[in-house]
Amino acid sequence: MRLEDETALITGAASGIGRATAERFADEGARVIVTDIDSNGGEAVADELADKGATAEFHELDVTDGEEFHAVVDAVAEEYGLDIVVNNAGTGHPSSRLEDTDDSIRDFVIDVNIKGVWNGCHAALPHMKEQGHGSIVNVGSLASILGLPKQAAYSLSKGAVLNLTRALAAEAGPYGVRANTVCPGFTDTSLLEQYLATEDDPEAAREAMAKEYPLKRLGNPEEIADAILFLASDEASFVSGHGLVVDGGFSTC
Ligand code: NAI
């Protein structure tokens, strides 16, 4: 098993990509610390993993709250050590031109997508540096490498995630800590459903989107989780500061 005896904390693990990552990590023998702002959903995921024989526990965590993030990470690190952190929790916003986007939407997206990732790195790094190893995987987006029209706030936030991760890789590498970003294309999750729901015909919008992809379909959360697993595991022991695009070839054409 690829994560045997390792402890991994995942944010936003009640749903979508985070949930699939929790399941994948559990299959590979990790102790999984499921965290989410959604306590019912998060508890259910941890219970489901435990029912299958995995070691899992849930901690309620709003990633925008730096103090809370530190408290959860400190408690986990003290009890088990902390080998892997996946900063996955994120949010989107309805499509709108930059000049029509409210400051409140911009600030909310920055709080969750940038400060949430920052808080996770800020809390985990002292422990990882002290123990001399650790792997941080941040979840970016195609919007980390492309500027998406009518998604300026989201693009701003996800571009920042990629470059924050690069800075972290340079800074923490000498302590044995790696940091990488996964950049998913459109992936079938509730976040995508919310995005499509703002279109006049969500199903037609989904089909049109899928046609744009060389593989003629959108991604599924398990495919993103596999990429996160690779970067988190020792198989990627010489990979750091990388942005791994998982988009079925969309960004290449
Ligand atoms: P999702 O909506 O299925 O899951 C997001 C999870 O994050 C939810 O469980 C939610 O409760 C949690 N969350 C939201 N705000 C939080 C907060 N402040 N603190 C803690 N947890 C919070 O969405 P999905 O698609 O699984 O998103 C996961 C990540 O993947 C996000 O960072 C998103 O930006 C990114 N992503 C998703 C893509 C897609 O097409 N679904 C494409 C590219 C990136």
From TrEMBL:
Any Pfam family the entry gives: adh_short_C2
Keyword Oxidoreductase applies: yes
Domain Ketoreductase: 6-189
SMART domains: PKS_KR
One term of GO molecular function: oxidoreductase activity
Keyword Oxidoreductase in annotation: yes
InterPro entries the record matches: KR_dom, NAD(P)-bd_dom_sf, SDR_DHRS6-like, SDR_fam
Keywords for this protein: Oxidoreductase
PANTHER family referenced in this protein's UniProt entry, alphabetically: DIHYDROANTICAPSIN 7-DEHYDROGENASE
Family designation: Belongs to the short-chain dehydrogenases/reductases (SDR) family.
Protein name: Ketoreductase domain-containing protein
Annotated source species: Natronococcus occultus SP4
